[in-house]
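Try this one yourself first.
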């Protein structure tokens, strides 16, 4: 049975491992100070939020999210990162994490929850196509950093 809840101090090592797996999937390695910053933000729960999925007491999935204003609706919730351990995939952790974020956002009056994924991420998209609408939007970026 999958259970969803806030991360605790005791989850730090398992969360870091899952977050590293997520970043590896997208071909990046985060600097330790960014990992530390994210953990501090999640622990304070003011600007950025995180939940974990547990299977038999073990942290097997994570989701990171935050709200932002919108010019056309009430605030919206952006689901930025979602990752489950390979051994837990197909057991409902991803779906449960998405549902938990939607419930959290609904309780705070958000108009919607949205996220991005690569078009080639067919495994995740099978789930996403079941729980959300594909609005057919493309993402453009202007990198501003070094």
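Now uncover the answer:
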């Amino acid at each position: 049975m999958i259970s969803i809840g806030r991360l605790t101090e005791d989850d730090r090592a398992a969360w870091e491992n899952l977050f590293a797996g997520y970043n590896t999937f997208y071909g990046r390695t985060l600097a330790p100070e960014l990992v530390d910053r994210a953990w501090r933000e999640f622990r304070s729960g003011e600007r950025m939020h995180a939940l974990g999925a547990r299977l038999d007491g073990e942290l097997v999935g994570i989701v990171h999210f935050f709200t932002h204003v919108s010019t056309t609706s009430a605030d919206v919730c952006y689901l930025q990162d979602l990752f489950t351990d390979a051994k837990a995939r197909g057991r409902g952790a991803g779906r449960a994490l998405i549902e938990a974020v939607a419930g959290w956002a609904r309780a705070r009056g958000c108009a919607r929850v949205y996220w991005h994924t690569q078009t080639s991420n067919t495994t995740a998209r099978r789930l996403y196509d079941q729980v959300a609408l594909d609005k057919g939007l493309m993402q453009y970026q202007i990198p501003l950093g070094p």
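Discussion: The chain has a mean pLDDT of 95. The helical segments are 12-25, 32-44, 93-107, 122-131.
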